[in-house]
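Worked example

This section walks through a single chain of length 480. The input is the sequence exactly as stored; nothing has been trimmed or padded.
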Amino acid sequence: MAISPKKTPISEQDPKVRAHNFKEVCLGYTPEEAMQEAARCLHCKNAPCIKGCPVAIHIPDFIAAIKDGDFEKSFDILSQSTALPAVCGRVCPQEKQCEGVCTVGRMKDRATGMNNEPVAIGKLERFAADWKAAQPAVKPEPVPYNGKGKVAVIGSGPSSLTVAGDLAKLGYKVTIFEALHLPGGVLMYGIPEFRLPKAIVQHEIDNIRALGVDVEVNVVASRTVTVEEIQKNFDAVYIATGAGTPKFAGTPGTNLNGVFSASEYLTRINLMHGYEFPAYDTPAKKSKHVAVIGGGNVAMDAARSALRLGAESVTVLYRRSVDELPARIEEYHHAVEEGVKFEFLTAPTEYIAYSGDDKNEMGKLVGVKCQRMELGEPDASGRRSPKPIEGSEFTLEIDTVIEAIGQSSNKVLLNAWPELKTNKRGYIEADEATGGATSIEGVYAGGDIVTGAATVILAMGAGKTAAQAIDEYLTAKAAK
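Given that input, the structure is written out below as tokens.
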């Protein structure tokens, strides 16, 4: 049977409607649509998609189960490799990983000579997870304690949840310490509801809790509980506190009222329900004209959130071209559909303050001076370096700037644990070859606090590797 060159279409909210609400954009496959898409998979023997997946999900098998209509089996296969299938199905950069190496995507359509679209692996993963979540809940039997030790996990993002789930399945007693009032890390505070509903994250965290994992919130490791107490009460430690400290570009005027980091802006909206003010008591600024600085997924999230909060215009300023845009192409297209404007090859040079006589307006942002750029030679990151074009300056009327140019490591824990070696960039030195072992015996680390800001699935991959290493460490320790 000939394979359809195109993915099975998936329903989405109308852009004109969704630009004004925080409900999820993508509505997911029906069972019939999922089975139709699953039938495009060739079930390759060499399975390049598995090699492209950081947590090595057996992709051909879970898709084959969907094709056969056995959705329970499909979810079971997924669960063997990932504790967060509904999350991964929504936010993983599949186009660069599993789908990027899909054999179907490398075949040419005989009619057009164009490459086929790869199998929609991410959308099928999401379908299987959502189908399972809609079934009557069956509480799993926790694995009996193996007697080998207790593990503390600091942070509760995707890397932490993965290591906790995998170790619980091996019979370890695991406690997660989370500084905020809800677990989930970046999944909760960083990614908007319209891209990753919080109920989805909460459901998958509940599944991990059901394995016997204890989650303690409002606990700041090194403050609420000391490093010495953690080392005394646990046999191994996994640190995955992420990279949550926002960076600023240092543009003149950064301290003006109206300039935010994307981290603060999105945390107010996502974790504190700022978009539901006054039902929730964390207000989010009502803006008229918003500029978002940056071009990654966080920039897309901030821009689309600002639009949903009622801004008349939202403009993304990115100093390179659309070809270098680091955001997922799907998120960029969604942003364009919803009305977000893009000024490529443009950089801010100054944030302008109100200059009139009204004392109530003093210190407020009223505009952004910009300069056009052109691309030169590749910089240290390998991307072509932008250079300013003389005489190309112009000014935009802007009352809110959101800088989304990256984040760095949080120093609260690191400063309290000087024996923990860090690199020049301020991240923990962890040996990838030994599953994330640090300079302290029995202490492992992974995710963004080691690599710098990366993807959810890479953080999960580090968690899986660390779980194996911690198991080997504690097994050897118990045998002595």
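What to look for: The longest helix spans residues 456-479.
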